[in-house]
Fold this protein.
Amino acid sequence: MTWNGALVIDGHMDTPLRLVDEGRDLGNRLPGHADLPRMREGGLDAVFLAAWIDPALADRGLARAEALLGAIRSAAERHADRAGFAQTADDVRRIAAEGRVALLAGVENGDALEGQVENVARLRDLGARYLTLTWMRSNALGDAAGGEALNGGLTDFGRDVVIEMGRVGLLVDLAHVAPSTFDDALAAVTGPVVVSHAATEARGAHPRNVTDEQIRAVASTGGLVGVAFMPTYLVPGDPDAANVGVVADHLERIAEVAGPAHAALGSDLDGVPRLPRGIAGVQDLPRVPEELARRGWREADLAAVLGGNWLRVLDALDG
């Protein structure tokens, strides 16, 4: 496990959909991008597995979240020799030290709340550590990036949700939100925020990518931006050109703008239709730090980007 002694944490994978909808076992080699055997081969120490709520299921979003979060916990219990369910940075450190993969949970899309603020605490009780406010469509919390501008930003309900998230210890994830929602959420939040999976607008203009100004704003909270491996985010005009080097380019841009303490991995494996050249799945994660090391990155900065920044954010959330 680890990469040259550094803990490796990925901030976003959509693998739970395979566990619930296809009845797959995370302990086996699966079609797609990720499973426990390949996580271990790729030196992954921890991963945020996403409970994605399809907007079509919004009327039963909480039940869907409960099923997906339950599948994550069950996978950790079923394969306790190779994995453990984690909720804190100390959990991650302990599980990784035992040579196992720490499985953390996030919820993607505020439709999981079914319009009820009290369900924020329910998600936290189920083990979630972040909530992505929107997905591709605007919802009751606010407007989404590329979605219809229904609310002019964060709604009153969304603001109440952000405040409640701070109270119960749930990270605000600003991946997928519109710029107006982004700004409004930052005005309401206390503590660090994250953008779990995106890319940088400076390296590729796309509605899902973050601007330099947004990167600085996230950094001002002590948060981070995780780089996704989605070719259409990485090279919007020519996704065929996306490769390991381009992933490194986006990480470097975040580091240039805000420092290495605010860049991270957020691959979106099992949530993207294709991957950059040179990355077939989670087993190929080491190619990213290898590329950064080739470019002369210091070991301490590599350790921060690979996993240290996610640990710092979790520590701050629970501090």
Q: What stands out?
A: Residues 299-318 form the longest helix (20 residues). The two ends are 27 Å apart (CA to CA).
